[in-house]
Amino acid sequence: GCFKAFYTHKFRAMLGKNRLIFPGEKVLLAWSGGPSSSSMVWQVLEGLSQDSAKRLRFVPGVIFVDEGAACGRSPEERAKTLAEVKPILQTIGFPWHVVALEEVFSLPPSVLRCSSQEPAAPEGAYKAAVDSFLQQQHVLGAGGGPGLAHGEEQLPQPHAQPPWDPQRLLRPPAAVQTEALSHLFCSVRTLTAKEELLQTLRAHLILHVARAHGYSKVMTGDSCTRLAIKLMTNLALGRGAFLAWDTGFSDERHGDVVVVRPMREHTLKEVAFYNRLFSVPSVFTPAVDTKAPEKASIHRLMEAFILRLQTQFPSTVSTVYRTSEKLVKAPRDGPGAGDCSPRCLLCMCALDVDAADSATAFGVQTCSHPSQIQSPTSLTETGTPQGSCCSSGGGRAQSRCQEASSREDPQACILEQLCYGCRVNMKDLPSLEPLPQYIQAEAQLRTQRAWVLAELRDCLIEDSDEVGQS
User: Which residue ranges are recorded for the region named Disordered (predicted)?
Assistant: First the structure.
């Protein structure tokens, strides 16, 4: 009893301390079938029950992403996993969405665009929203609506179909998309890049489902142990600038959909004990790094390092986690601080654009950009480089020529729109052609838009010019 009260209090306190989820808001629970996400779903289920002391007041839904094709699983194995998922979803009773990872090949390019975020609520707005919700609930209850005790039925369901349709649940994805996804992951050379690519595609798919069905929040089951490992891993991957977003309680990089991590105070040991004591069901699904050796990827190596330290020094995970709590999402000074700043094409974090001649790792990568290395085919029959047509016209003409060449090269078009960490991972992909079409289309659109803006900027009269003429 004491352990359950302690466990539940940490979950409720994390939500109550931050106050990001308002009453009646639709929240999508990202359930992978693992211990942490299963425990998170069960905490929400208990929080919505009638005998709960302080009931949760949001409207939940569950999403399960089938990643079997990326892990090399057969259709029979994937069907068996979905058959295990179905009764658990029926027991939970929330509206659910079961989607295959192959559906990323049918996503629109708009999923990579940061939608406008609502301004921060003023102080006291949360309490006013709670009072309004309780008053509305009281009026509905007085009108003879006993089914509205939780407030779920007064909002539209995420989909018009019955919540659990066996035919829809077990329907396999298109064979063409499965083959394309398998080809994409087979072409990645390292396990580190595979894991990063899988996380990116999964995040895009969940974001699209949340937007399509009106969810404004997405809950993930990242535990304290997992976030400590993720912090150290992202440091090794060159994503130190985005640690506050990748490991914090809330992640607002997408604008209209906010990712929250209410399980970040629970260790994996606590989660395992809770699931065992209170029979929380879970589904084992092999991942891309299942049975991989310790040094197969940076993720596996850092996980083994942290867990080995934890066995010898029990405060390791908590120390790393407390360090992540002190990270602040402070925007950089300059043009990268605004909402209109360029964002990474894959992770959608603010793009730290350094000059090509800077002494940073990003600047070195920009210097060694494939589009700037002249290939033998760039020489004409007369032996004159094609870029020499504008090289004598000054820096502006030369930059225009480079922009034109990058627009013609799809691979350079994508690479120049990636942050340092994503660019390093894409180096392990021999060709970017197997990437889903929505990524390539958005990259081409951003490049064309930037080129048009650069052309228009030359025609505009700046304030300094007007002052000089007067």
Answer: 145-169
